[in-house]
Amino acid sequence: xxxxxxxxxxxxxxxxxxxxxxxxxxxxxxxxxxxxxxxxxxxxxxxxxxxxxxxxxxxxxxxxxxxxxxxxxxxxxxxxxxxxxxxxxxxxxxxxxxxxxxxxxxxxxxxxxxxxxxxxxxxxxxxxxxxxxxxxxxxxxxxxxxxxxxxxxxxxxxxxxxxxxxxxxxxxxxxxxxxxxxxxxxxxxxxxxxxxxxxxxxxxxxxxxxxxxxxxxxxxxx
Length: 222
Description:
Number of strands: 11
Radius of gyration: 18 Å
Largest sheet: 4 strands, antiparallel
Protein name: CRP-like cAMP-binding protein
CATH architecture of the largest domain: Sandwich
Strand content: 15-25%
Distance between the termini: 27 Å
Order of helices and strands: HEEEEEEHEEHHHEHHEEH
Low-confidence stretches: none
Strand order of the largest sheet: 1-8-3-6
Domain Cyclic nucleotide-binding: 10-130
Number of domains: 2
Shape: globular
CATH topology of the largest domain: Jelly Rolls
Pfam family, one: HTH_Crp_2
CATH class of the largest domain: Mainly Beta
Domain HTH crp-type: 144-209
CATH superfamily of the largest domain: Jelly Rolls
Number of helices: 8
Helix content: 40-55%
GO molecular function: DNA binding; DNA-binding transcription factor activity
């Protein structure tokens, strides 16, 4: 699905005039799968808004191995924290599919944050959710086995019943600190118990409450 800037949550409350002004300063670009949008360590002097496609965020370990941190799908903006503190990109973003992005100058974004309370509030909520998700992932990695981590990951994302696997089972494993083989084993075990169905690029959660009990996390709302 293709989005516009208005489809990004942090810009959802802006009026048409403000949106047109943003679009006027935005630089649009398309990338083929495998191309790099930004590189870890480069200055984050623009807000990168993904409008179409999927992107993975990765870092290189001391041994030279790529560690996939997350896989994200449009619409989403990258490295908002780095933009706020005039820092650098914390990860290398690589297109997993053909993507369309908009680059917004830092000055334009900061002016919006300063003048539009709705933008500032939405950005704070997004950053808070990111920190909370990171805390949960770190806790899961430290205290849970792989099946519990997989169950917890699914429960947190299954509000609509269907959970897309944007990066496949390997991408899920990268997010929770597990191998693709161990993720597949956990998913197959849940499927045999009737808790989920494994589809093409997604998991359908059939019994979220039992899955939540297995993961020892709060059940999603009915």
